[in-house]
Amino acid sequence: MVPPTGAGQNASVPELGPSPLVTGQELPVADARAAIHAAVAAFIRATRAVDGQETVPLAAAAGRVLARDLVSPIDVPAHDNSAMDGYALHGADLQAVAATVLHVLPGTVFAGTPHSASVARGQALRIMTGAVMPPGLDTVVPIELCRVDGAVLTLQPGGLSAGDNRRHRGEDLAQGQPALLAGRWLRPADVGLAASLGIAALGVRRPLRVALFSTGDELRDPGQVLPPGCIYDSNRASLRAALQRLNVQVLDFGLVRDDPAALRQTLQHAAANADAVLTSGGVSMGDADHVRDVLAAFGTVAFWKVAMRPGRPFAFGPLHMADGRPGPLLFALPGNPVAALVTFYALVRDALLLLAGALPMPLPVLQARSVAAIRKRPGRTEFQRAVVEPANDGSGFQVRLTGSQGAGILRSMSEANALVVLRQEQGAVAAGEAVDVWLFDGLV
Ligand code: AMP
Ligand code: MG
Question: What is the CATH number of the domain that holds 401?
Fold first, then answer.
């Protein structure tokens, strides 16, 4: 079967494969993403893979996915209160033309200790930010607008209207309103919002379980002696870290040799324990044969040549268990270290979040001016490692590439704080031209 070429085309799980190795045809990144997301949605419908829930205290809730809508059990704020340090008064006492002169009652209303005595017309009461508005008073004048002489408060006309500087009960959130929606990937402010509602624990989705392994006879674990011709496995370290930032539970299946029996055994084990399987290496044209045969026996996996650089080879599809029951989704990344990470961000990250039950959280795209020309031919999406910084002339951001852009040169990625994303149809970039940029870090 030929992979889908139209964006948004519905590639359900069974329709995904088995697919021959497609030669001479590259799949645009947008189409690969659309096919993956459609398959993930079908997978969720078919297997309800990540329906499990658990309750966690707020201290462990950041980065988890909210399982159900969080409905506010109270009004926030619970009372009308002052937005300023100043004097509370009756708005109706404010004079439009002449000065307003009020009698100041003794004492101060502090946050947390409501004042219950009534305040007559013509009177004012000192009040602090967050303190409950005394009964009948509806306006607060900030301290810097007041002249106070003993018990006499004088206000010049203008600058203040009835109702000013009063926060209304329920104005942030009314009781019964949804405060956070199911699928929310909980950020610091969300956890704070739950706390402000008096909620001490949240129902969240169970973490997604992702089996991770690297393939290649040449690979050794860091800490091991490196025989001639071998290299250290860096993909498992970088991919594990990328998964951990999504709060995924990583099942580390280690190094797997380029050997059908070893691959079969690892896949069987992973299929029985994980919601998704993430691998690197062995999917490129050169050595894909034995991988393809093994995967054909374990699922319906499509091998794609994605129109992207770095990262062309990519395989994706549902696996099944030895007894034929549906298994996890396989994402097989190219082996080159930069290609593996870039492909993860471009094709896998959002799919895993979807699988984890999260509402879409696309990577934010920033525009920055390229300090130098960038060579590029239309036909592929290119991801270049780069440093984004404030522009020298003070306007917006500028971006410069980080040295050699070879797919295997991880240092170019480590020195970068962003990826320049050159769209498929885009040609060469002139110096000073604005380009799209994905930042590696941001507020979450
Ligand atoms: P492959 O996709 O298996 O053909 O690998 C492409 C290139 O990436 C080869 O140079 C591999 O040695 C290298 N490579 C594959 N897997 C890893 C890994 N886990 N860590 C570092 N380099 C890798
Ligand atoms: Mg290999």
Answer: 2.40.340.10
